[in-house]
Design goal:
Layout: H1 12-44, H2 52-76, H3 78-97, H4 102-130, H5 134-165, H6 170-173, H7 175-189, H8 204-227, H9 232-254, H10 262-266, H11 268-298, H12 303-309, H13 311-328, H14 335-352, H15 361-386, H16 396-433, H17 440-473
Length: about 500
C-alpha cells in the first residue's frame, strides 16, 4: 500500500458512533412514518387519495437528489455536508411534527428528503475515507451494514411504541435528538482529509437530467401502483425517465467534470453491488409492507406488538453483519458472502410464503424472520464496504450516493410492483371464491393473505436473482488478499481480476 495510505485517525471509532447514528435516523425514518400514517391521516383530515403523498414526497426528493447530494459532499466537504444534512433534517422533522394541515406535513416530508439526500451519501463516504485498513474496514462496515439493513425494522418498532403510547407527531420529533447528538459528535471527532475533495466545477446539466430522470422513474412506479401499469400517465413518466436518464449517460460521457463519473458504475464489481442491492431492497420493502398489514389486520396485533415481532429479524441482521460478514470478509471473497447471504434471505422469505389465517408465529414466522435477518446482514455488510472500496477519494461521495440511489429506487419499485401484484391476486381470489363463501369477512381475509403470499413468492425470485447477480458480477478477491490495482489513465483502478483487490488511495 502506498506511503500516503498509512495515516490512521485516532478518533475514527468515536466518529463511527455518530456516523452510524445519523444513518440509523435516515433509515428508520423510511418506515417509522408508515406505522404512524393512519393516525396522522385521521388527525389532519388527509384523504385516502392524498395519503400516499406523505410517503411519496419524501421518496421523490430523496431519490431524485441523491446523486446531487453525493457530488455536493465531494465538492463542499463531507463533514460540512454531513452536519448541514443533520441540522436540516432536524428542522424538517420539527416542522413535520408540528404540522397543522396536510400541506405542511407533505412539505416537511419533502424537505426531509432534500436534507436526507445530503446526509446519506456524506455519511457513507466519510466512513469510506476514514477506515482504509482491511480488518478495521470490515468491522466498521459490518456495524454500518447492520444499521442500514435493520434500521427499517427498528423504525417499525419505534413507530409502534411512539404512536401507541404518545402520538404520531413523536415519530417526527424523535429525529431531533438523534440529529443534534450526531451533529455535535461530528463537530468534535469526525475528521476528513482535505485532499480527498473533488474541487471540479459542478455539472449543472448532469444535476438537472439525473434529478428529473430519477424523480420521473420513482413517480412512475408510484403512479403505477395507483393508476395501473398501462395508464397513460404511468407510461409517459417511464418514457420520460428513459429519455432523461439515457441523455444523462450521454452527457456524462462527454463533459469534463461529470456529476457521476462513468468509471464509478462501469467497474463490474460496483455494478454488481448496485444491481444486487437494488433487487434485494425490492424484496425487503415488500416483506415489511405485507407482514406489517398481515400481523395487524389478520392476526390482530397492536402496533407495538407488530414492531416487536420484527425484533428477531433485527437480531439476525446484526448477527449476520457483525459476526458473520465482518469476521469472514477478510478471509473469503465478497461474492462468497453476498450470494449465499441473499440465498439464505430468499429461503427465509420462502418460509413466509406459507402464512395463513391461523399461522403460528413461533413455528413459522419466527424462523422466516431469523433466516431473512441472517442472510441480509451477511450480504449487506460486504456490499456496503465494496461499493466504495477502490474508488478515488474524490469520487467517494458520488459512489456512496449510488448505493443509496439503488436502494431508494429499489424501495420505490418494490412498493409499487409488489403492491400491484398483491392487489391483483387479492381481487382474482375474491372473485373466484365469492360464490362458495360462507362469510364475506372471512373471504376478505383469505383473499388478502392470498395476495400477500403471491407477492412474497415474487420477492423470493427477486432475492434469488440478486444472489445470482452478486455471484456473477463480483469477482474481486478478499480485502487485503491481493495486489494493488494498477491505475488507469483516468486515475481509477483498472478492472479487477479474479484475484485482485481494490486498494483505497488515501491522501495524508
Amino acid at each position: 500500500m502506498p506511503e500516503t495510505a498509512t495515516y490512521v485517525d485516532p478518533r475514527r471509532w468515536k466518529a463511527l458512533i455518530f456516523i452510524a447514528l445519523a444513518q440509523l435516523m435516515v433509515v428508520l425514518d423510511a418506515t417509522i412514518v408508515n406505522i404512524a400514517l393512519p393516525s396522522a391521516q385521521e388527525d389532519l383530515g388527509i384523504t385516502d387519495a392524498n395519503r400516499q403523498w406523505v410517503i411519496t414526497a419524501y421518496a421523490l426528493a430523496f431519490g431524485g437528489l441523491l446523486l446531487f447530494g453525493g457530488r455536493v459532499a465531494d465538492l463542499w466537504g463531507r463533514k460540512r455536508t454531513f452536519i448541514t444534512g443533520l441540522l436540516g433534517f432536524a428542522i424538517a422533522s420539527g416542522l413535520g411534527g408540528a404540522a397543522a394541515d396536510q400541506a405542511m406535513l407533505m412539505g416537511a416530508r419533502a424537505l426531509q428528503g432534500v436534507f436526507g439526500a445530503l446526509l446519506a451519501p456524506a455519511a457513507l463516504s466519510l466512513l469510506a475515507v476514514t477506515f482504509t485498513e482491511a480488518k478495521e474496514r470490515a468491522k466498521a462496515f459490518g456495524i454500518f451494514g447492520a444499521i442500514a439493513g435493520g434500521g427499517g425494522a427498528v423504525g417499525l418498532i419505534l413507530g409502534g411504541v411512539l404512536t401507541e403510547y404518545l402520538n404520531w407527531r413523536w415519530t417526527f420529533f424523535v429525529n431531533i435528538p438523534f440529529a443534534v447528538v450526531a451533529a455535535t459528535g461530528a463537530l468534535l471527532v469526525v475528521r476528513e482529509p482535505a485532499e480527498s475533495r473533488n474541487t471540479s466545477r459542478l455539472d449543472v446539466p448532469g444535476v438537472i437530467l439525473a434529478t428529473l430522470g430519477l424523480v420521473s422513474l420513482v413517480y412512475g412506479f408510484t403512479r403505477a401502483e395507483s393508476d395501473g401499469w398501462l395508464a397513460g400517465p404511468t407510461l409517459g413518466l417511464f418514457a420520460a425517465a428513459a429519455v432523461l436518464l439515457l441523455t444523462f449517460v450521454l452527457v456524462e460521457s462527454k463533459v469534463k467534470a461529470p456529476l457521476l463519473p462513468l468509471r464509478v458504475v462501469t467497474e463490474r464489481n460496483r455494478a454488481g453491488i448496485y444491481a444486487s442491492l437494488g433487487l434485494a431492497v425490492i424484496g425487503m420493502f415488500g416483506l415489511f409492507l405485507f407482514l406489517t398489514y398481515y400481523l395487524q389486520i389478520v392476526k390482530g396485533y397492536t402496533p407495538v406488538t407488530t414492531g416487536l415481532a420484527f425484533l428477531p429479524m433485527i437480531v439476525g441482521m446484526i448477527t449476520g453483519s457483525t459476526q458473520i460478514g465482518a469476521r469472514l470478509m477478510t478471509r473469503v471473497r465478497p461474492r462468497l458472502l453476498m450470494a449465499p447471504g441473499f440465498t439464505v434471505a430468499a429461503l427465509g422469505m420462502l418460509v413466509l410464503t406459507q402464512i395463513d389465517l391461523d399461522t403460528s408465529y413461533p413455528a413459522l414466522i419466527l424462523p422466516g424472520f431469523l433466516l431473512m435477518g441472517l442472510g441480509m446482514g451477511t450480504a449487506f455488510m460486504p456490499a456496503m464496504s465494496l461499493a466504495t472500496h477502490g474508488v478515488q477519494p474524490r469520487d467517494a461521495g458520488v459512489a456512496s450516493a449510488m448505493v443509496n440511489t439503488s436502494q431508494q429506487v429499489g424501495g420505490a419499485i418494490g412498493t409499487a410492483l409488489l403492491n400491484t401484484i398483491a392487489a391483483s391476486a387479492t381481487t382474482a381470489y375474491a372473485t373466484s371464491h365469492a360464490a362458495g363463501a360462507r362469510s364475506l369477512d372471512l373471504l376478505k381475509l383469505q383473499s388478502m393473505v392470498h395476495g400477500y403470499t403471491t407477492a412474497i413468492w415474487w420477492a423470493v425470485g427477486i432475492l434469488a436473482l440478486a444472489g445470482v447477480i452478486a455471484f456473477t458480477f463480483i469477482n474481486t478477491g478478499r480485502p487485503g488478499g491481493g495486489s494493488p490495482v494498477a491505475s488507469s489513465q483516468d486515475g481509477e483502478g483498472a478492472a479487477l481480476g479474479e484475484d485482485e483487490v481494490p486498494v483505497p488511495v488515501m491522501a495524508h
